[in-house]
Amino acid sequence: MRRRLGRVLGSSWPWVVPAVVLLLLTTLWPLGRGVWLALHRSSLSTPADDTFVGLDNLTGLLGSRSWWAAVAVTLGLVVAAVLLQLVLASAFAASLRRVTVAAPVVRVLVLVPLGLLGISTATVWRDAFTTGFVQQWFDLGGTSTASAVLSVLASEVWRGTGITTIILLAGLQRVSPRLLESAVVDGASARQRLTRVVLPAVAPALAVAVTYRALDALRSFEAPLLASPAARPGGFDSVTSLTWDTTFSSFETGLGAAMSVLLLVLAAVVAAVLVLGLRVRRVV
Questions:
Q1: DSSP annotation of 250
Q2: Closest among 57, 176, 160 to 115, alpha carbons compared
Q3: Contact 258, 61 (CB under 8 A)
Q4: Is the pTM of this model over 0.85?
Q5: Cα–Cα distance between 254 and 265 in angstroms, integer?
Q6: Is pLDDT at 247 greater than 70 in this prediction?
Q7: I want to staple 237 with a disulfide (CB 3.0 to 4.6 A). Which of 10, 181, 194, 242 is the partner?
Q8: How many Å apart are CA 131 and CA 227, to the nearest integer?
Q9: d(Cα 227, Cα 249) in Å, to the nearest integer?
């Protein structure tokens, strides 16, 4: 067995090495460049000034109220978006599980919002909440902070509910109909069937959906940028929009790189918390 495994690995290395090298180049080089910029006072307005400042950029951000306000807004949007997506996706997945006619076509259509350009989706929902039908129906005020927050939230929920539905649907398909029938025969209530039969089987898919969508929403860029104060009055700053404005409006590339590094650290912390918090036992 070991000899056979060695032969397989030996014959596959020529094909694997180029992919590994390309992955390292496209990952480590930008990351290293970003860390290098974060340690320098780099600015596009004064390119000659490239002084090494060490951790000053990072410590300055950690002591900045605007940075922590952006982090709080970002995490709040992530939590709200993921929860709404889970509620909607659970209902859609339960409905799609009963679809038998043209089921593959329906599942592809559910993924259409994810395939659209993010900037198009963000623009449509921003206009809906500022000058469109949502603003007219609920009279939110086209330049209010509430309309900006809700437009970003609606954009993220609309874009990600489809893929969350497909992930949860894959988990629901692991639930055996015979097991549910046996639970009914044994007198289990609807709540007991949900908590003791359905949720244990869907838990792995649920963990994947929450982790994936949380990390994807954390790096959401287009919608927060269009709703930022630099884009229009009444906006708000998320981590990504603040990083963009610092780098390309204030031309402080060193400080912007430091924000990017902290965003990477924040994503790693969120991922670690979710992975540890959503560990589930494998259901056979």
A1: S
A2: 160
A3: yes
A4: no
A5: 17
A6: yes
A7: 242
A8: 13
A9: 15
